[in-house]
Structure formats: C-alpha cells, structure tokens
C-alpha cells in the first residue's frame, strides 16, 4: 500500500483508491504510485478486473496539482516530465485487464484524462466531468485531445475543450462519455456488480477483446479484421476455451483458470 494509492483485493477484482484529500489531485507522487500499483497487478493471476476511484465523495480526481506548474514552466526538459505522465496513462490504457473508473465527484482536467484511459466509466449522479484547462490558458496535455474525440466524436470533444465547461453525469452518459450513471454513494456497488460479471469470464478472452478493439481503432477495417483473426486463433490455443466448450457440452458453469 502506498501513501496515495490504496490497493484492496476482493473476488478477482482489485480496487484502487486515490487518496489525496480533499480533491485527490494528481501530483507527481500520485502518478508514480498509480503506475506502480497497476504494474504490481499486471501479472497477478488472482486479479481479472480493476476498479479505480477516488477517496471521499467530493472528487474522483479534480485535476493535476497546479502548485507544481511553476516548476514545470522553468524546467528546460519539461517534455520528459510530460511524457512520463503519458507513460502511466498509456500503461493504464494498455493494461491487459478490464479497468473500470468510478467517478464519485469532480472529474476535471487530468482526472478526466485518467478516466478516459480506463475501459469503462461509471459516474455517480452528482459528478461533474470536464476539461477546464483552457481557463488557465492551457489545453489538455494528458491525452485528452486524443482520447476524448475517439470516444465522443470530434465536434463535441472540441466544444468541451474550447469552452472548458463541465457536463453533468447524465449529460456525460448521453454523449457517450460515461457508460452508466449511479445514485450518489452507489457507484462502487454498481461497479462491483459489473466487475463480478466480467471477472467470471476468461481473462485470456477478455484481454484479447481489449487488444482487438483498441488495436483495431487505429487500423483500417480490413487490417482490424486481420488482427481479430490472429487473436481469435490465439485464444483457441488456450486451456480456457477447452474448459468453456467442455462446460457448455456438460451443461455446467465453466471454471476458468485464465490460462
């Protein structure tokens, strides 16, 4: 357990909680511990899905730690610092297991970009989500200009970034920014239920779904289908598919070993 990121394991699921009150801002130390936490779970065979949330009920993550910005301004190698942030976000985006973000309050700036790096987002009804960097004379620098348009479309993404205005949880669901809205205080329960459904399946198949979808988005349809075919062949070589087919024939629940 780190000082800023708490890991709790339960029912094939890892719950990661960012603990930097009052608003769980993303400082350098928080980013470092996030990267370390995900890396520690990468090869943990007992973890099939990951839930990511913030402590308290005010914020998932209210943005980057602006107190660190003056130091960045004077750093002649600022690009290295920026890319180290991208390395953590990319590692979450490319994590070989499903990742669900529970947005339990303010989800601004870097917090929104962190949520965008996750596979699924569940927002509590009081959450507000946005990229307000333009109000500081900035623009999103944690992958927001790249991931948001891919998720909700170019025009709406530009509108949110040009104005810096947040959207409600309901509006976020309407435009496809979040998958589901839960009542305040019930986001984690909703996420746990979803994670339980996911974790009952084969990680061999789940990880390849993620590879096929994410990899296919940057390819033509023809190239994407070829990627899918290669991964489909791979999954047919796993022990889990043998168990799945056998369980189906025997009319019982499959017991996957994730091998």
Automatic annotation (TrEMBL):
Is-annotated flag, keyword Protein biosynthesis?
no
Q: Supply one GO molecular-function term.
A: hydro-lyase activity
GO terms in the biological process aspect are: fatty acid beta-oxidation
- Which keywords label this protein? Lyase
Is Lyase among this UniProt entry's keywords?
A: yes
Tell me the PROSITE patterns matching this sequence: ENOYL_COA_HYDRATASE
Q: Which family does it belong to?
A: Belongs to the enoyl-CoA hydratase/isomerase family.
Please report the name of this protein according to its UniProt entry: Enoyl-CoA hydratase
């Amino acid at each position: 357990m780190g000082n800023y990121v708490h890991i709790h394991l339960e029912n094939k699921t890892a719950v990661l909680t960012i603990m930097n009150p009052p608003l769980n801002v993303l400082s350098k130390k928080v980013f470092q511990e996030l990267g370390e936490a995900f890396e520690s779970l990468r090869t943990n065979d007992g973890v099939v899905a990951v839930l990511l949330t913030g402590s308290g009920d005010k914020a998932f993550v209210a943005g980057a730690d602006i107190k660190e910005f003056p130091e960045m301004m004077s750093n002649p190698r600022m690009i290295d610092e920026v890319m180290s942030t991208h390395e953590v976000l990319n590692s979450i985006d490319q994590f070989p297991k499903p990742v669900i973000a529970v947005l339990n309050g303010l989800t601004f700036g870097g917090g929104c970009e962190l949520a965008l790096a996750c596979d699924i987002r569940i927002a509590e009804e009081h959450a507000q989500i946005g990229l307000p960097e333009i109000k500081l004379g900035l623009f999103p620098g944690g992958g927001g200009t790249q991931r948001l348009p891919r998720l909700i479309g170019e025009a709406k993404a530009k509108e949110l970034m040009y104005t810096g205005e947040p959207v409600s949880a309901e509006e976020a669901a309407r435009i496809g920014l979040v998958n589901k809205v839960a009542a305040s205080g019930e986001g984690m329960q909703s996420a746990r239920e979803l994670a339980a459904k996911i974790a009952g399946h084969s990680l061999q198949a789940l990880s390849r779904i993620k590879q096929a979808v994410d990899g296919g988005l940057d390819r033509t349809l023809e190239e994407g289908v070829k990627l899918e075919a290669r991964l489909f062949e791979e999954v047919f070589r796993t022990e889990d598919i043998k168990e799945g087919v056998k369980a189906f024939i025997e009319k019982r629940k499959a017991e996957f070993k994730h091998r």
